[in-house]
């Protein structure tokens, strides 16, 4: 996710460059489409599907429901505001704006998210828990089945 998040940020910044700073005639249009395709590929290899897998590994059911609410709320806002950004407010700098958020998402991935590769389900749930490891064991019975934790 770190690599593809950075690729997405660079692709969006390059879209701004080819639409605003380096005007190369018709070539600029083709370069913008190429940058858009790179952005979409980066999204589909990282933040698109992997977020759902990561949430399932590290969150409880309640945490997943909050994350889904936040995800769909932001998707609604982006879908609603992007036409206004492109047509009235930021014009071609809209891509730079979203590229900045991709850069921040990459920093979030580097410094906040924790690796879950090779960890058991219990270890994954303990990654972001406020409780010490010994206290988290009370969430599980002998078969490591998730119990209702209040």
Compute the CA-based radius of gyration: 20 Å
Going by CATH, the homologous superfamily would be MFS general substrate transporter like domains
CATH architecture call:
Up-down Bundle
Main sheet makeup: none
Order of helices and strands: HHHHHHH
Total beta strand runs: 0
> Could you say which structural class the secondary elements and strand pairing correspond to?
mainly alpha
Tell me what portion of residues adopts beta-strand conformation.
under 5%
Poorly predicted regions are none
How far apart the termini lie comes to: 32 Å
- Put simply, the count of helices is 7
Say what the CATH topology is: Growth Hormone, Chain: A
What general form does the structure show?
elongated
What is the top-level CATH class?
A: Mainly Alpha
| Helix amount | over 70%
Mean pLDDT: 85
What number of structural domains do the residues give? 1
Quick recap:
With 150 residues, this protein is an all-alpha fold.
Can you give a write-up of this model?
- With 150 residues, this protein is an all-alpha fold.
- It has one domain: MFS general substrate transporter like domains (Growth Hormone, Chain: A, Up-down Bundle), CATH 1.20.1250.
- Helix content is 71%, strand content 0%.
- It has 7 helices and no strands.
- The chain has helices spanning 2-21, 26-45, 50-58, 61-89, 94-111, 121-126, 133-136.
- 15% of the residues are buried.
Question: Which tags fit this structure?
Answer:
150 residues; mainly alpha; Growth Hormone, Chain: A; 0% strand; elongated
Question: In terms of topology, how is this protein built?
Answer:
Elements: H1 2-21, H2 26-45, H3 50-58, H4 61-89, H5 94-111, H6 121-126, H7 133-136
Helix pairs in contact: 1-2, 1-5
């Amino acid at each position: 996710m770190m690599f593809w998040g950075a690729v997405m940020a660079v692709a969006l910044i390059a879209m701004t460059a080819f639409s605003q700073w380096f005007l190369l005639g018709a070539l600029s249009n083709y370069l913008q489409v190429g940058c858009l395709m790179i952005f979409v590929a980066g999204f589909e290899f990282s933040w698109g599907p992997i977020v759902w897998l990561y949430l399932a590994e590290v969150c409880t059911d309640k945490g997943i429901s909050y994350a889904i609410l936040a995800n769909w709320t932001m998707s609604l806002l982006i879908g609603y505001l992007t036409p206004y950004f492109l047509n009235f407010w930021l014009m071609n700098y809209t891509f730079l704006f979203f590229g900045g958020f991709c850069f921040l998402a990459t920093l979030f991935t580097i410094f906040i998210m924790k690796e879950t590769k090779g960890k058991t389900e219990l270890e994954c749930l303990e990654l972001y828990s406020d409780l010490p490891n010994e206290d988290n064991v009370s969430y599980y019975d002998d078969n490591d089945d998730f119990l209702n934790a209040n």
